[in-house]
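pasting for ref
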Amino acid sequence: MSTENTDKVILENETVLQSEENQTENTSEQTESTIELSVEEQLTQDLATEKDKFLRLFAEFENYKRRTTKERIDLFKTANQEVLQAILPVLDDFDRAMVEISKSEDELLIKGVVLIHEKLKSALVSKGLEEVEVRQGDAFNADFAEAITQIPAPTAKLKGKIVDVLEKGYKLGDKIIRFPKVVIGN
């Protein structure tokens, strides 16, 4: 081989070596940028995951607050239920006593008892107690009244309807705490 050929081969080798070095540098730069993107992408994904967890937890907490608020309101509405149910028989006795006292001729006695009766009723109404409106001749509805017995209807109009109300019913707010006891004509 001649010197010229040798120089040519050396130059070609150097060119090849330089090109390989350039490629290696480019590859390492690309790898670094890929790694950097991967870290960025990973952080973005982590952020999205944490944000999703936060939103779900926040929604769960809002539902919890709404549910407990509703339960608290319902509890306040019916807090007096047991006390009022215990007083209902006394109110029934008072109503029966009013009927008998009204037969008396003593005006002052009647006035005094009426005043006490009205005061008791207004106190119970102020606590949320309401009478369930059921009258003779109304259609029977099992959602609002309790049928004690059925008797032959005195008239054809009273078939399947309420013939008599034996005991008044009461509700506290929207909840019936004692169903009216009725007799139905058949």
